[in-house]
Every structure is written in C-alpha cells, then in structure tokens.
Amino acid sequence: MEKVVLLSGSPKMDGNTMQVLGECKNVIEKQGLEANVISLSGKTIEGCKACGACKKTGKCSLNDGLNEIIDAVREAKGFIVGAPVYFGTARGDLMNAIQRIGMVSYGTDRFLSWKVGGPIVVGRRGGHTSSYQEMLMFYFINDMIVPGSNYWNIVFGKKPGEAMKDEEGLETVKRFSENVANLIKKIY
C-alpha cells in the first residue's frame, strides 16, 4: 500500500496544525492509502550545517531525530507538511527540518523527486500566503508534484480547536488531500 507522510511543525500535540493534519489523514485513508502523521513536538531540530556528510552516508550528521523522519519520507510516495504561522512565516524548526530533508535528498538519490504533496499553513490572522509560498519553494526545487485544490491550503485558528471551525479552510485542505491521494494512485 502506498504511503503518505504528513509532517506537523507544531510544538503542540493537540494544536490546530495536528488537528488539521488529522483530518487530511482521514481523507487520504478513505482513498485507500496509508497515512502517517509525524510531529516535531518535543524535538529540537537544528539548521543544516552544510557539512556534506549526507552525500557520503545518506544520513544527516545531526542526531536530533530527523533521520528517522527522513527514512519515513524516503519510503512514502506522498509528503505533506503542516506549518503553524509564527510572526508571518512558517515555524523555524519546521523550515530547518524540510531544508535538511531536501539536502539529504539532493546529496544522495534525490528521493523527493516525483513525491506528491504540498504545504498546509495554519495561523490566527496573517502570514498564511507568505508561509505557503515559502514552503512551496521546497517542493518545486526538489522536483516534487503539488496538486491544487479549490483555494490555497490555509486554515485560520489560534486556540487549539479553532481551526476546526474554519469550514472553508478545512474543505480546501481535505480536497487537496484527496487530490494528493488520487494523483499517487494514478502515478504509482
């Protein structure tokens, strides 16, 4: 069975980003694919040191738990990244994570190429589109396939649970998740 990894960049295990990705997971599983939500909660993800070790070993030299996530992403056909918006951008350690995942892919067998997915951003009031665009750069430079939806993958909410009240945002990310699953089934 084909797999999709959904990576939550929220420090909160019960926060809006995790709840939104849980909804996406349900949609993907209804399409007959396996979906796994992985959280960065409790992890401290450092920025890439540009040491080049991944080119030799296939692993990141930093030992902070990201290599296990990289292994899961490598095995999956889909990769969705959920980011809470902090001060108008995607949360810093999430960007550290996807930049390092990209560096390992780029320095080795380009395992991200042709994976299907895209970003989802969750925040209170502003910074959604800039965060979304920032994260799209990761997908495009890594030769990945990003399907559309009926709007951009942005959801509004501050306190845990508020995002679940954004009907339009949830409809958008659910449609996106369905498109990810359907495209994976067509390609693979």
Task: Provide structural commentary.
It is built from six helices and six strands. With 188 residues, the chain is α/β, with parallel strands linked by helices. The chain has one domain: Flavodoxin domain (Rossmann fold, 3-Layer(aba) Sandwich). Strands 1, 2, 3, 4, 5 and 6 form a six-stranded mixed sheet that branches. The longest helix has 21 residues, at 167-187. The N and C termini lie close together (10 Å).
Lay out the secondary structure.
Elements: E1 3-8, H1 16-30, E2 34-39, H2 53-57, H3 66-75, E3 78-86, E4 89-90, H4 92-107, E5 116-123, H5 128-141, E6 154-156, H6 167-187
Helix pairs in contact: 1-6
User: Which residues form runs of ≥5 with pLDDT under 50?
Assistant: none
Q: What is the CATH top level name?
A: Alpha Beta
SS field, number of helical segments: 6
Main β-sheet description: 6 strands, mixed
Number of domains: 1
Q: What is the radius of gyration computed over CA atoms, rounded to a whole number of angstroms?
A: 15 Å
| Separation, N- and C-terminal Cα atoms | 10 Å
SSE pattern: EHEHHEEHEHEH
Taken as a percent bin, the fraction of beta residues is 15-25%
CATH fold-level assignment: Rossmann fold
Determine the CATH superfamily: Flavodoxin domain
What is the helical fraction, as a range of percent?
40-55%
**Coarse shape:** globular
